[in-house]
Design a protein that fits this description.
With 179 residues, the chain is α+β, with helices and mostly antiparallel strands. It is built from four helices and nine strands; from the N terminus they run H-E-E-H-E-E-E-H-E-E-E-E-H. Strands 3-4-5-9-8-7-6 form a seven-stranded antiparallel sheet, sandwiched between helices. A two-stranded antiparallel sheet has the order 1-2.
Amino acid sequence: MPAGFLIFSGKSSMLISVLVGLALTGCSAGGKKNYTVPEELCGASVAPRLTSDLLPAGDKLRVTPSHSGGPSPRQFCNVLVDGDIELTVEGVWRPSGTTAEQAASKELTFETRSTDGGRFALSDDKAFTVVDCANTDYKAGKYSFEVTVSHPDGDVGGKTQRFLAAFSESYARKLPCRR
């Protein structure tokens, strides 16, 4: 018999089967989401399941909002799972007439597809939408939202669109728009 080959029989093969089963069980147990997704996320109320659908398994979730200064500030929010950025939401003031497709192209996102009558622009890992929001301080007529999923698991376009629809609707109510 060649070196490196072992023959298992009876109790030995049963022990190997048990050990392999335990190793596989250990791997799948690590695939759980052991964190709680908040209902208030990055300044917007969003059903936790919509956010959870975009996040990987892990133990700890942390949300870190921030913003840039300047004449037209940007809002940023990162959602981290076990210390890694997994979801990013960005808000940007835009000129009147800006569409979701135009917002995507201004952020250098190519190969987007338009959905919901042009309300959304989707790529493999990003989604864009814009809402009406006139604000003379920022010389804006629109506010755009960009959501990026850092490690998409398959086609997340529909999930990202559902999340962004809820997020943008909630967040838009807090924007300083001239109504």
